[in-house]
């Protein structure tokens, strides 16, 4: 680990110049691997205190959405959301064949002809499809070993011809399945909070969805970098599909806990990745948005698909803040009100630097 500090302190290291040079290749981390590098560039080296450490094991709650005991299902979701911020769901209605094809679609995108892929490379998140490496490339303290393509699949879907041909059909099919799952999850969470089961649905929380296809190439020096640095996510809810390689970890009681892949299961994260972390604001800290990360690996490539329920980047003056039903003299508001648009813009500009985004809105 000491080597990281030594390399980072080399005299004359111009980080911005190296970031620009990497960005201008439009080939991402995969381009470095394809070039046969054996040592990672300095921009990817994380400080020793933030790079991978030993993790522990912990049983992540599994919720059976096919259970006929709704009260028990709601109880498990509430306990997991309050105590851990993560849980897994099975019998969720998405066929395994669809999940497998979605993972393959992400792999096809990142491994397709380079010139085709380059045409989608951008940092303009208003585009229908955005492919790049590290959305926060120029603002994060260290670059992550990951490439991503993303697109908003709700509340309105881009014209099919604007989606990547190699994964267009499965992206549309999978997104439709996840929208249905999200609607169910929001009803269950509403009930868990003692609200009408349509409460969040009436606020359109289950309408906006962004799908992100992550690709983590095998890393020659995984102990010096991260696949995704420690962060808290900023959306209403996330649904994560990960392949068999794993690497996701959550911070629980000051220890990193592995979230190993479970065949047929999806990982649900309260308060999530690329938009506005309103669920915790709305629940006034009753639900938890927990810090998590992805470690780099030598196996690779690791593929995952994250679907984030939130808002689009379209201007919106809709105001959101702590739910009146959850505020009292004994439990006063802990976050100021904001608009969807303001929160979305702040989320895009905020780097994955380990500083909780929610502090910006804390009263």
Automatic annotation (TrEMBL):
Residues annotated as domain Fe2OG dioxygenase: 204-312
InterPro entries reported for this sequence: DIOX_N, IPNS-like_FE2OG_OXY, IPNS-like_sf, Oxoglu/Fe-dep_dioxygenase_dom
Alphabetized Pfam families for the sequence: 2OG-FeII_Oxy, DIOX_N
GO molecular function: dioxygenase activity; L-ascorbic acid binding; metal ion binding; oxidoreductase activity, acting on paired donors, with incorporation or reduction of molecular oxygen
Keywords assigned by UniProt, alphabetized: Iron, Metal-binding, Oxidoreductase, Vitamin C
Family as reported in the entry's similarity comment: Belongs to the iron/ascorbate-dependent oxidoreductase family.
Identification of the protein by name: Fe2OG dioxygenase domain-containing protein
Species name: Lactuca sativa
């Amino acid at each position: 680990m000491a080597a990281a500090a030594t390399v980072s302190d080399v005299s004359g290291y111009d980080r911005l110049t190296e970031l620009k040079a990497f960005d201008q290749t439009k080939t991402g981390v995969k381009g470095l691997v394809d070039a046969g590098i054996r040592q990672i560039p300095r921009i990817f080296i994380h400080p020793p205190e933030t790079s991978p450490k030993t993790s522990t094991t912990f049983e992540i709650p599994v919720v059976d959405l096919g259970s006929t005991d709704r009260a028990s299902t709601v109880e498990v979701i509430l306990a997991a959301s309050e105590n851990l911020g993560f849980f897994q769901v099975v019998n969720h209605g998405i066929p395994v064949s669809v999940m497998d094809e979605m993972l393959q679609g992400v792999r096809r995108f990142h491994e397709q002809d380079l010139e085709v892929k380059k045409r989608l490379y951008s940092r303009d998140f208003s585009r229908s499809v955005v492919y790049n490496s590290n959305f926060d490339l120029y603002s994060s303290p260290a670059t992550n070993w990951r490439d991503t393509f993303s697109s908003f699949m709700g509340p309105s879907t881009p014209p099919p011809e604007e989606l990547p041909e190699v994964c267009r059909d499965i992206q549309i099919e999978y997104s439709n399945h996840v929208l249905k799952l999200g609607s169910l999850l929001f009803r269950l969470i509403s009930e868990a909070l003692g609200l009408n089961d349509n409460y969040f649905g009436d606020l359109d929380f289950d309408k906006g969805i962004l799908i992100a296809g992550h690709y983590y190439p095998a890393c020659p020096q995984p102990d010096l970098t991260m696949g995704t640095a420690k962060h808290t996510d900023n959306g209403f809810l996330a649904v994560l599909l990960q392949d068999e390689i794993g690497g996701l970890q959550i911070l629980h009681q000051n220890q990193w806990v592995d979230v190993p892949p479970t065949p047929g299961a999806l990982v649900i994260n309260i308060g999530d990745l690329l938009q506005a972390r309103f669920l915790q604001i709305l629940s006034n800290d009753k639900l938890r948005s927990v810090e998590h990360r992805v470690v780099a690996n030598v196996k690779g490539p690791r593929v995952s698909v994250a679907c984030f329920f939130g808002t689009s980047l379209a201007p919106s003056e809709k105001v959101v803040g702590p739910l009146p039903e959850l505020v009292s003299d004994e439990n006063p508001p802990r976050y100021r009100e904001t608009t969807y648009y303001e929160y979305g813009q702040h989320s895009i500009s905020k780097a994955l630097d380990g500083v909780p985004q929610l502090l910006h809105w804390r009263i």
